[in-house]
Amino acid sequence: MRYAETGYNLEIDLSRGNIERVETDPRDTELYLGGLGTNAKIIWDRVPPETEPFSPDNLLIFSAGLLGGTPATGANRTMVTSISPQTRLFAYSMMGGFWAPELKFAGYDKVILRGKSPNLVYIWIHNDKVEIRDASHLQGKGSVEVQDLIKQELNEPNAQVAAIGLAGENKVYFASIEQGRSSCSRQGLGAVMGSKNVKAIAVRGTRDINIAKPDEFIELINEVLEYIKWRNENPIPNYMPILAGLGSPQEMKHDDEKWHTENFVWGNARYRRKGFWTKEIAEDWKESMATMQRRLISCFNCPMKCGATISPPGQPTYMMKCFTKLTYTMAAFANLEFGLGIAQSATEYGVDGYSAPQVMAFALELLEAGILTDHDFPGMPPDSEGRFHWLLDRIVRREGIGDILADGTYWAAEKIGNGAHEYAHNNIKKHEQLPLKLSMLDPIYYLMYCTNEKVTITQIEGNFPQAPFATQEEREAFVSNWIQAPNERIKQYVLDWEPRTAPYFPTPDMCCEIVDWMERMHYIDDAVGMCAGLSAFPLKPPYHIHNYPKLISAATGIEMDEETLIQTTKRYRNLVRANNIIRGMRRIDEVPPEDHWKKRFPELEKELLDKYYKYKGWNNDGVPTKETLHDLGLDYVAEEFEKRGIYSETPSYEISAEKEKEV
Amino acid sequence: MSKKIIKTIKIDADKCNGCRACEVVCAAFHATPKYSSVNPARSRIRLIRDPIKDIFLPVYAGELATAECMGRDKYILDGKEYEECAFCRASCPSRDIFKEPDSGLPLKCDMCEGEKEPLCVKWCLEEALIYEEREEDVEEEVKPDEIEQGLQSLLDKHGLEKLVDTLTRMSEKD
Questions:
Q1: Which residues of chain A neighbour B126 with C-beta distances below 8 Å?
Q2: DSSP code at position A241
Q3: C-alpha pair distances (Å), A428 with each of A18, A411, A593
Q4: In this complex, is the C-beta atom of B104 within 8 Å of any C-beta atom belonging to chain A?
Q5: Which of A61, A133, A354, A632 suits a disulfide with A81, CB 3.0-4.6 Å?
Q6: Cα of A243 to nearest chain B Cα, Å
Q7: Domain A237-432 class?
């Protein structure tokens, strides 16, 4: 018997209409756990780097995590993996909600889509019964409304439906996959789903998930619940309130947006508005939230209420995710009422709440700069709010200028030319980032921005404080009950961290250790299907490196201690990177947006990245070395690198230095 | 008069966050062996959940109903229309909740016998589920024994004369 996992994947060939239930190798679970880990292995094995993102040969994998559907609080994430049309790299975007546990109850760990359906379809998974059904009548439907339409059509109110909207159907490079109160928004996986002509996947399951050591497991989960209760009553003292608790930042709960509106930047990730948060604004925004918000809501089996149902006047109710609350408002220099309203349309269309507003603000900046002209925007209203609605409508339909903008700022700038690239300034690896511009380089964030392969900072930052505590007493208080710290050294870094020591403290060596640990926690979450909001993201979470091995072991029966878990995560972390290395990613791609910090330190940055690559067992161009791969049992990756001449090529930074000399 | 403990779960639906942790722990607790598996379809508490309509209604399983109701009730509360049978706790032929998914056998809440409180209550950090116990006085009725009950029904059906005649005839045979 398989424990925690079902041991079966659903393989669907859309071109041929073939559906197979395939037993998986339990050895792969030991090597790569599940979720992101096993997804990375499947992409490595089956999607060669020459495969175009919209090719039928590209795979689109929907995966539950190893602990998904078990009683583990918060283990509800769906990890969707494919090759991104925007970054053209290995993409893994994830969503909470209810879909992954339902898939497990139906008897599957993953749904693997390959090929391309000749016409628009949706997939209906009901335990053993799996059908590919016509969806021509659902074409153009909103990604939220279609979930209800499908449930009605199937007469199955308990089905969970993941769906795309118009943006996904039209292969907008930042199209999302929406489901329940959550979405898989980053890196354009909704577009890949659209390219396969799949409108939705509906699932209903009534099967058991088995637990290997029931008594041990439930005791560990009861401890987790107790700790959550305690943490909810005890936010981190001396820390900004929005980051002092558990969950993703509690955007729906907090009315005070002084911190975000004055520290994050407005428009096309440009303008900081100090002094914005006046008493009048605070009252107006509080009023908007109070009148539109109906209820704070949660994902499957989680007590944190990170989402909310929102009913904007004259529009249908929708479910909002944390920071989308502000992205449209700030991109358009508008008020909260506008932001909550346009987010309803954007959710139905199914677009990423980070990229979409930025793409629109980028277009308007190009217009202002004269790079685009009024002819490119025929009939666009004069006011900022009207313009945003107008642009959104065109982008998701790929009409006129919308067709160019639908590829995101990088590719749009490429097509527009004429200096447009200067305006696509807030990207990492061609992907729009959170609108945040700061003054002093932060060495920890520098490394995370450069090397993370999720390409989204909020999903990689984590357990180490973002800033030093002001006094020694505060520092001592913080470490006194810091059970999550991986070792005593990390605690000492917090104790020794004094204000105004940036960017030289923590030192590069310390940064390597801190970033490696924080990243590892995310990789564990993404394999077991745990929400980072209860684990890798907040300070002092209920899940950490010391209880995870016991949990995994109790749930699955696999022998697991900290050392084995660390080695396992290293294995699939390197496999994720290998998928990007064979797609050409190198050191020169690992840069934060140039204007992210005003004060930059080229020599220190070089030292940081040199040291971190070494710490990770990668060569100076960011490629995992043969020795590293061998230690992890990934010789098959090293052989492929060898075969493709990756180890013998001139390092990317030398080529780029040569080019600069020529210019 | 005697005392009887009445156990109730008070449901404050306005506090429900829709997470279904109640279903998860219920299903796990009632697995054999305990906690060895989880399957919300086996849960004795179910969440009727429609976030867009703001419907979040936990309902826990009551008695078996062998036949479905002819007349059904629909409630509209605070402008929200609840589905037929939403508030009903019966395991009933009209719907598939509160039945074992494999056998179709009815499920009924047992308040997690042996635990301090029902586990759905313990796992609901929102306090949408509150456990309450109260004592109630019950009239002690004198229960007729089985023979008496049987004879009463024969009496009702055939009348005293026929019953006495028959009994007499039967005793004479011996």
A1: 303
A2: G
A3: 38, 13, 6
A4: no
A5: A61
A6: 21
A7: mainly alpha
pLDDT tens for residues A318-361? 888 778 889 999 999 999 999 999 999 999 999 999 999 999 99
- Rg of chain A on CA atoms, in Å: 24
Instruction: Give the angle B145-B148-B152 at the CA atoms, nearest 5°.
Output: 135
Question: What is the C-alpha to C-alpha distance for residues A413 and A268, in angstroms, rounded to an integer?
Answer: 14
Closest to A204 measured CA to CA, from A101, A62, A75:
A101
Report pLDDT for A663: 66
Token digits for A280?
Answer: 């009048």
Kindly report the nearest CA distance between residue B155 and chain A, in angstroms: 51
Q: Where are the domains of chain A?
A: 8-204, 237-432, 442-662
Annotation: CATH topology of A442-662? 1.10.599
The ipTM is 0.94
Q: How far apart are CA A472 and CA A494, in angstroms?
A: 10
pLDDT per position as a tens digit, A541-562 = 999 999 999 999 999 999 999 9
> For A8-204, CATH number?
3.60.9.10
CB A505 within 8 Å of CB A497: yes
Q: For A208, which residue in chain B has the nearest alpha carbon?
A: B39
Alpha-helix runs per DSSP H in A131-213: 145-154, 166-169, 189-195
Which band of pLDDT confidence, cut at 50, 70 and 90, is reported for residue A34?
Answer: very high
Place B174 in a pLDDT band, splitting at 50, 70 and 90: low
Give the SS3 label for residue A432.
strand
Phi/psi at A489 (nearest 5 deg)?
Answer: -60, -45
Which of B37, B40, B51 comes nearest A297 by C-beta?
B51
List own/partner pairs for A290-295 with CB under 8 A and 24 or more apart. A292/A337, A292/A340, A293/A252, A294/B54, A295/B17, A295/B51, A295/B54, A295/B56
Instruction: Using alpha carbons, select from A54, A345, A14 the residue that is nearest to residue A173.
Output: A54
Q: Which residue on chain A is closest to B25 by alpha carbon?
A: A71
Strand partners, B133: B7
What is the C-alpha separation between A350 and A343, in angstroms, rounded?
Answer: 10
B13 touches chain A (CB under 8 A): no
